[in-house]
Amino acid sequence: MPVLDLPTLIFLTLTVNLLVAGYMALLAKLHPQQSAFWHWALSCLIFVIASLLAASRLYQVPPVLSVLLAHALLALPPLLVGTGLVRFIHGPSAGLPFRIISMCAIAYLLLLSTSYTFSHSAAVLNAIAIAASCIWCIRLLQALTKPQFASRLLQCALALHAFAMLAETYLYLNHWHTALPQHTVALLQLILLSHMLLTTVAAALLPLLFFITREQLLVQQANLDELTLLPNRRHFMRESSAYLTKGGANTQLAVMMLDLDHFKSINDTFGHAVGDAALKQVAQILTQVLRKTDLIGRMGGEEFAIVMPNTSEADARCIGQRLRQQVEQHAGTVEGKPLNLTISIGATYAKQFSGLDFQTLLKQADEALYEAKRSGRNTVTFYRDRQ
Asked: Which of 80, 229, 235, 326 could make a disulfide contact with 43, Cβ separation 3.0–4.6 Å?
């Protein structure tokens, strides 16, 4: 079986990077709000140019181009990956650490320009610079909790890249005043190949990071209420029905409908911004008081729904009263406005969900909510079957 030699592999790697650069530029055109793509496209393009300059040493190109300029440019791609990540994570208008980058770049260029003709100094300085940029990128990605899978893959590629550069530094420093032995030359060739391949892998993972993040954002926008970040009506109904049908057939449960009292007058008196803040405050209280196993959703307007599996009627009554009291105590003043906010809760209880219709339970809780409204608000009312 024929084996590709090193020059062929390098040529293929550079070709892939050139194609990725074009792809990134196309994505930047299609998504002008995502300026990170321009950083990443430039990173791939500079990597190809710098690699070609470094390879030109084989053709007696002056060291000022094949060594000094090549190594100056080779330090840029991982740095541009980092600046692109800043814009990707924190937004297209996020400020970049220009002062620190400028100081590091000046120090690097000064050291490189004064020592590139000595032994292996250019390669050592470049390897240290690339390793430092990779570590910076890893730290930036640690702030990106989603998408976790793509982020971790990219962090692994960058960590391997940093390790390869540090290994290269060790090999050169270990033979600083001596000729490189044959086995060290072979290791350095392997490191060079891994450097180029890991650069290509990192470049390919960057668009994946974007698309997975975008997909997750679209799912979140489809499933979550934009204001409270609770499940919206459609997602709540789907998840609750699926959960109860699959695992809650033989469990006791309580279903509640919750409504903010006199919400229209709050909007009319204090404005919709204060009304929105009140809704967010109530959503936060619901999240804090209820258990992780409870399902919460915003049904629309000022109305919320709650499903509490494995909950007795006595526990449901206690939880309902605690919710009412927490809102009364902690949402009396919102955005500095004395709202005296209260809630009314209608609830229903079933010893077993098996054989029941979830829509029927919601209807019962809704009827109990209307009864709570009629009886003076700021109260918890349970459904009573009149049959």
From this structure: 80
